[in-house]
Amino acid sequence: MRKRSNKLLVLLAYGAGSLVLILVLLTAAVRIQEWIFRDRAERLFSDIQSIDPLRTTFDQTNSIFERWHGSVSYKLPCSKQYCELNIGIVEPSKWHTSRLFPRLLDLYRLLGGHPAIASADITVKDGVVSSKHYELVIEAPPDVGTDGHSLTYYMEGNISTQPRADTSSLGEPGTRRHPEYEIGSVACLGCLEIHASFTPLADPADVRRLSRINFSCLTRQHPCRTKSDIMPSAASESLQENLPSNGPY
Prior knowledge:
By secondary structure, the protein is α+β, with helices and mostly antiparallel strands. It contains 6 helices and 7 strands. A 7-stranded mixed sheet has the order 1-2-3-4-5-7-6, with helices on one face.
């Protein structure tokens, strides 16, 4: 009887040890994948920032599209005269096409993962890039409200450059403190959004300062939850200038 008990304890110990090992390996795999995604999101951002609207030609963007082969989509018809292209990457990418994705996503969160999307849009008119846009969306951990219910929301950081004629909020430069750019937020359901929008004439120093995205939100242990976390420079200047806010900074 004692021998059976000892064997059972040994089997339970092996089982528990195996389960712990599996969880450790899965957690490590999630962390590694997060760092890979962060590197890709930063490279995509760098590629998009290298494009100079109204100067970069359609042909000059080919090297970028080749690097992101498999992640590029575009609206038809697409030609040098007019084309709308998108480059999008998703984390966790390995499970995204699975029918079990919702369940696997719960496991991914449980293991400390940060579901996220990095996306870039490019519009070409008359052979040159007329506008560009980069967006980083990161799921924040559930926030427990006063009613005891948990709420999951997303943080969105948006950076774009486009002609003033295509940006109504920049259409009357004389009425704004910064005629060649704006920073602010828009109301969105289940998210916190912050953006920096520029015209092609914006000072490069302003573009570099306000376009800073905190990519550590994709890998840090303590999660990002606010606009200041994801786009610190833009959020700080927006707050200082008392621009309308739709959520915590």
